[in-house]
Amino acid sequence: MNGTTTIAEFRDAILDPAKRAHYRLAWLSTVDHKRIGVLYMLTALVFFIIGGVEALFIRLQLAVPNNDFLHPDTFNKLFTLHGTTMIFLVAMPALFGFVNYVLPLQVGARDMAFPRLNAFGYWCQPFGGILLHFSILAGGAPAVGWFSYAPLSETPYSSTPGIDYWAVALFVLGLGTISFAINTIATVISCRGPGVTMRRLPLFTWMNFINSFLILIALPVLNAGLAMILIDRQLEGHFFLPFRGGSAVLWQHIFWAFGHPEVYIVVLPAFGMVSEIIPVFSRKPIFGYEFVAASTVAIVVLSSLVWGHHMFTVGMGRPMDLFFIITSMLIAIPTGVKVLNWSATMFGGRIRFDVPMLFCIAFLIQFTLAGLTGVSHASAALDWQTKNSYFLVAHFHFVFVGAIVFAMLGALPYWFPKMSGRMMSESLGRWTFWLWVIGFNMTFIIQHVLGLYGMPRRIFTYPDIPGWGWMNMLSTIGVFFMGAGSLVLLWNIAYSFFRGRVAGDNPWDAWTLEWATTSPPPHENFVALPPIHSRRPLWDVANPDRPDPPVGDDQVVLPDHNKTGILAFIFSEVGFFGTLILAYLYFYAHPQAGPGPKELDVQRTLVFSVCLFASSFTFWRSEIAMSKRNRGPMLGWLTLTIALGGVFLVGQGMEYWKLFQTGVDVSTNLFSTTFFTLTGFHGLHVLLGLVALLIFLWLAWRGDFALGSEPAFAAAGYYWHFVDIVWVFVLLTVYILPLLR
Amino acid sequence: MTTYQFLTTAWRWNSILLIFCALALAGYFLAFRRRGRPAYFGAALVVFLLALTSPVNALADGYLFSAHMVQHILLVLIVPALLLLSLPRSFSLPRPLIAFTHPLIGWLAGVGAMWLWHVPALCNAATTSRAISAIQTTSLLLMGSVFWWQVLAPRETERLSPGVGIVYLFTACTACSILGIILTFAPVSICSVYQHPVDRLGMLGTIRGWGLTSDRDQQIGGLLMWVPMCLIYLAAILAQLARWHSDAAPQTEEFNA
Q1: Which of A22, A279, A377, B20 has the maximal Cβ count within 10 Å?
Q2: Residues A658, A534: one domain?
């Protein structure tokens, strides 16, 4: 059993040539969700050190007034990289690592629904991270903040390739994140073990399942924005350049329509961790499971309606301010429900103050404070005063560190025994805990005061104003406490991995399924699952005389994972094309001089559109032929589908060719920028669909899959129909709408 | 006219509406007697009358797009929902109407009611012509009822399962939000009647005095469709979750024990 690996055995494993080959390649080529989970966390740890050092430099520069330790431009680069790194390369991969490891175990699955997609999603992380940091060598890191506000991020104002690397890196990371979310949804819906009904999901799984939908709502919006800014910078587009008719505020809307849900994307998994740890260490089931679960759904819907509170100082007008104030305040209700339920779970429980629980208690207090300052920012009048001050910096660090990092620091010792087979050191854990709690509060509580005293954020130094000096110094000293806590943590991980106390299967007497297997689990996760009738199957096993009341009936319905996955993917594409279409409409309403919709050939496009729509019909016929096991007609209809799709692309090519001939390209004016972006991305999707269909044609022609019901083929069909439906909307917006004027 | 005078005098007690409501009430009691849930039906009538006789109606009648939007929300989301809730559990639809209970038709009716009546030509026509206004009101009530049937049908078996219901409501919420976003950000007037109102009541000065320019008015209209509308859908989504979690445990457990 791996759980009892001694150092000698570990050394043998590395030194033995046969086993070494296994070690070397196994981690690079792995598709096992447990190893990918660990890889995610290790990647996050590496970038955590990088981002932490960046933060250290920022605080050193700010420690004393009129400091010239860093060049102003270097300071700008550092806070841009620090923010981007901590959110996209630390918080997200670390949380996804936990989800990757734990979620399939909690639902009793053997692996994620799409193991290879899972590996792809992981490898996007280091690739994106290296791309981002490579910009330092390629002529200058981005220096515009993690939000990259236009027009500062446009070529005339940021001529180094830093922003390009930033945008491509985030695009790559976004693709990885979306594939992770699709995988999570498909795993929960289609890969649950017997008895694991949707109503019995542990809260960690439930929250990450719901969170995956939020990822699919938010990330595609960012990706669309990144595509636009890259088109602006690389192809001289006009989206966000005011002096060419573009709108810098549109970038803010797009960025924050992603950016606010993003806060919940990283905080909901943390909520899930806390919802697992607090009940186990209070020896009580969670208080009001249904309320904690349902409030997650409310958070997802509301968080998509509140991004405007990041833009009160932009001048959106009083009506918009008012509505965003109301929704932003409403979101305090579902989060408040959660805090109340966690507190009520602890109330009257036999609390064990182990390190995971200590961090959860700290999380509860710090997160409540973060929420209070958060609600204060929901009020536009107060927000105008504090927005660009250190008060805001303090607020969001309370969310990201006080809530998310603390939850992760609690979750690590909680699940470490499962991953390694060994306990983390309790005494070293307490050192980490106190160093972090003291350091964190020392650094950030005082920043509230600094902000209210008027210290603006994003400045590289400040004059010697009474009081500012010692407060900043105090804030910087706190960073060293956190740094020391991190070093202890690293030592604890390394030490415990080799020398830690052997954990056994279920060291915490926890109740969810991941504790029903060995530590670490075998490759296929479970030998056999215990009977599952409630939300705490291991409690029922341990206490057969007083089991939890059964929840719902035992019947588990598992839809096909291919179809689930592709539907989730389509859900994300709606956000991507929705953003592009709305951007098109936004600029269509402000017509510019130069080429416009009148240059387009509507009649020809309608003819080619009919070809595309007909291809949906022919695909359907092909599917019918397949289900009837008629190979000939199936191949024939599929070939016709591909031909019709190809004809449509030729038609689009003719349209483009004519425009190029008359000197219209992406950089001509806003119409051409939006037109080529929207139709170009649609054409790209048609092309990808054609490639997928060609692969199917090839496989079917070789006889590589049995005819009959083939869900993968149906899934490809969903995608193909979706591309056609998108064209209905593009056709209406781009070609038909101008006719109605 | 001052705001106070307006709020006290702008009520239109339209006799056709009152007679219609009285007949509806009588019909309700004749048809269902004690089986129905008259509180919901009463609430539906009150909201219906408020939407069509109160000062909101006077403002929606050519003055304020945002008031029109309030009326729209009440007629398409609130009144039909209350009407369906007022039906007795045993109620079943007459056979010819069963065709309207397909989820896709329900979804298209709910979303279509929002989009269709904000096509500029139709929106203007509904404000200028009494007849088209009456058609609009009727169609909103009908389409709203077809939409809500999927979630609030009297018989549990005719409703969507909670999971599908959440998808149904969430996608409808998204589709309406997109329209709300378009209305909020549109630089041109969608319903041009409201841009230069005909000042029949001598109210325009007072209304502009509230700070409601025609641009702001349209923004508020768009925001009403975007935000409060979504909150109604969100409430319905939470109700679906409550329904899902309240399913009773299987009875067989007790027999086994």
Answers
A1: A279
A2: no
